[in-house]
Amino acid sequence: MATFQFDFVGPERTLYSGQVEAVQLPGTEGEMTVLPGHAPVLTSLKVGVIVVTERQNSGKRILVRGGFADIGPTGVTVIAERAAPIEEVTPASIDKDIEAVELQRDATEDLQKREELNGQITQLQETKATLNF
């Protein structure tokens, strides 16, 4: 199967760089799967899991908490606000993230910001449930 270049940059390190067959992204407008030859798109990412398919039955999963994806026909670059490989994620780390977002939500009087933060809390809770923690 055809491949394309996928680069994933977190705030502290590069989490992935290599040739892949497909990448599933949690876009703010909805989940999307990128394959070779994809039309150019720039999208923001919500809290969720990026699934990287290196080859059939082989890949990686990365928890992302916001960021952007620059998609083109020959490659995808993700720049994440916060991210970690699934192997490094624990129930306690997700609970800590939820608590941090709740503190931000409780500290603001901006109704639009509160709604955005409520959405992040829900997405983190759903991600925790999806990962069977």
TrEMBL record:
GO terms for molecular function: ATP binding; proton-transporting ATP synthase activity, rotational mechanism. Residues 4-83 form the ATP synthase F1 complex delta/epsilon subunit N-terminal domain. It comes from the Bacteria. It is a peripheral membrane protein. InterPro entries: ATP_synth_F1_dsu/esu, ATP_synth_F1_dsu/esu_N, ATPsynth_dsu/esu_N. Keywords: ATP synthesis, Cell membrane, CF(1), Hydrogen ion transport, Ion transport, Membrane, Transport. Coiled coil: none annotated. One of its GO terms (cellular component) is endomembrane system. It is found in: Cell membrane; Endomembrane system. Produces ATP from ADP in the presence of a proton gradient across the membrane. Belongs to the ATPase epsilon chain family. F-type ATPases have 2 components, CF(1) - the catalytic core - and CF(0) - the membrane proton channel. CF(1) has five subunits: alpha(3), beta(3), gamma(1), delta(1), epsilon(1). CF(0) has three main subunits: a, b and c. This is ATP synthase epsilon chain. The lineage of its organism: Bacteria, Pseudomonadati, Pseudomonadota, Alphaproteobacteria, Hyphomicrobiales. The gene is atpC.
